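Q: My collaborator sent me two sequences in one message, no labels, and asked for predicted structures for both. Can we handle them in order? The first one she listed is below.
A: Yes, handling them in the order given. First sequence, followed by its structure tokens:
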Amino acid sequence: MTEPERKRIGLREVRALAPGETVWDAAVHGFAARRRHGGSVAYVLKYRTAEGRQRWYTIGRHGAPWTPETARKTAQRILGEVADGNDPAEAKQAKRKATTVNELCNLYWKDAESGVLMTRRRMPKKATTLLSDKGRIDKHIRPLLGQLKVAAVTQRDVEAFMEKVAAGKTAGRSKTGKKRGLSNVRGGRGTASRTVGLLGAIFTYAVKHRMRADNPVQGVVRPADGRKERRLTTDEYAALGATLRASETEIWPAAVACARFLAVTGWRSGEALELTWREVDLARRTVMLPDTKTGRSMRPLSHAACDVLRGLGRGGDDALVFPATRGNGIMVGFAKIWARLAKLGKLPPDVTPHVLRHSFASLAADLGYSELTIAALIGHKGQSITSRYVHAADAVLLAAADAVAAETARCMGDARKNAHAA
């Protein structure tokens, strides 16, 4: 194929173009001027992405502000972006498509769901986080901001949005896709704060893809999220212990064992329910979780926790430690079983499995352990980075796990768990 003639594009070359004719610039590779059949002249740039895909980028039509010189400078800037691994033509197309916040949310959600978007730990968002994000997008962001143009949203719009969510303007009940399923959407300051946080991430995505130059969420002062760090009282601990002991033969044993395990470890319920025997080393009293909310995590096991696991009987390496009543999947009904246990123990409705986690951490603090030690016990985000490379808990950490678990067992009136602490 014959290489097209190149010359430095100037006003003379532009004026000399015939309809359908293109002139290529000798100074900037890929930069050209093309006269359309309608008579107008467009400045364009042809380039290849880092993946080798050919792209055409229309810079603009000849006439103020576009002259051969201003268009050439823009072409040079775009080629610089291409050299950095970006694809300006694709970003420009996305900008055209995402004209409203609704459409921006569609693009953001598509990338989030496919794992393209990374968290601060450079990992895809977890399924539970995605579920929360989708609820906030569909129930709050779309109804209040969805029809606004992405480029037109102001800081004041975000502040008004936050005020409306906090006031409960988007609260209500709606049907889900499940039979007789209902979604209870709540407002309040906490919901407003967390939803504005997500909105900030969505507009950061918009800025990255050149849909607008700035993030309107920056500078908006969010209220405290209102989360209450609830802990069990002495009476609630005793009621929980009595309920678990009375339910061992009445309710699915693996679920009762899981509840007890959460109480003596402070783990997140999802971590326990997804635990497999491959990850458990009873000899070293250690568990290595490959993927938690805070990444790879090594956890010490107290004697009390080991007793719970031994009572279940070890399964195959890939078997779940706390199996469901049917099949090989995760025990999705644990939340309902927990609600049943709480009701039997006459525990308040706000006593959730997460309260067991905070209660464990609070007991550890009561016993004088440092934040770093507590973080290592429960896999908190403050956990030392060195734990990624440690494969067994040391004696000091195991002693701390034993002490907190023994205090938990004492509060629950479970003498069996105190035997190892003596």
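Q: And the one she listed second?
A: Here it is, processed independently of the first:
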Amino acid sequence: MKAGSLFLLLVLAAPNPPEAAIAYFSNVREIHVGQPDRQNFIVVDEEIWNHSRADLGDLRIYDGDSPLQYSLSEQRAGISSEEVEAKILNVGTVAGHTEFDLDAQGIAAYDHVRLRLEAKDFVVTASVAGSNALGQGPVTDFAPSTLYDFSSEHLGSSTVLKLPASSFRYLHIKLAKGILPLQVKGATISNVREQQASWTKVGSCSAPQQKPRATVIVCDVPPKVPLNRVSFQIAASQVNFRRTVSVEGVNGVQEASGELSRVRINRAGTLVTSEEMAIAVAGVSAGDAGKITISVENEDNPPLAIEAVQPLSLERRVYFDPKGKASLKLYYGDEKLSAPVYDYARFFHVDTSPAEAVLGLGSHNPEYTGRPDDRPFSDRHMGILWAAMILAVLALAALAVRGMRSEAKP
């Protein structure tokens, strides 16, 4: 019984959760603080990606021997929007033009109006005027917007009017000929606040190769840097196209797909312009091969005049408070270390104007010793465990034989 209990304890023995220690990090870099008296940040670069955990959970900032809390932030594009349904009033026709009023009650300020139009294949100009009294009082005119739908050409649509930040109670909208009053089905008014994403260039791409009905581009990218976007530069002279694009990773597995488009159409003196020159990728990495393959489907159309293709990674920033220190150290390269849980990250907010700190060159940590072997006893001493099991089996067998002999003597 004692041998069995000992064996069970040895098998179930597990190491304690890994702790951070300077000697356990393989790499180190100097942090030259931008301004010691305010919030700083560093940008995660290829050197850090190549020598840290895939989730960046092993990054640690030290002031001497003391750890310093931080918050890891992705610089994604953000849109915060307050949107309300607007009441449509006085819909009718004036001199062949559809006109109506929108009641903006329920939202303090706004800068976008989205119309729901039950119409296809049109281009119209929308004139907008704001006032605080319906049908009377001073009126403020806004720059006109162009609304369009190119369903037949498969070139998309837009029914959004963009305005400067406004707070008028009523908006009077006049549409150019082409939309009937019965086709105006609704409208929403919103206050949209946009934050642009920040990107880091990673890798490079070869010249496009023309294949039957497709253009293929092969890109070399760092194996461990996550890709979030592929941008295209296409000759400005090439307009009015929409092409499906696929991005393939290791073993030809499709990692992302999207569309490139550029629209410049003049209809009855109204110019419509829009373009989309990038494909979103969901944070994939190129793996050990370090390559991705991009295919632009041309179908029966001539190839696009692609001038450049650039893989991009969403910028990651490490924000911290240097607490008056002009120099700190960043340690990384400990696969067993899990991400820290900091109060600083829980209550984090970006200051109005944080300072960017400069990272020194990456180098091997001179204090590195590596972690001690913290595997369970069962993994580190398999020979001893097998010997213990064999001895236990032999002991049990001997006891069984002895018992059988004792029973046979009477």
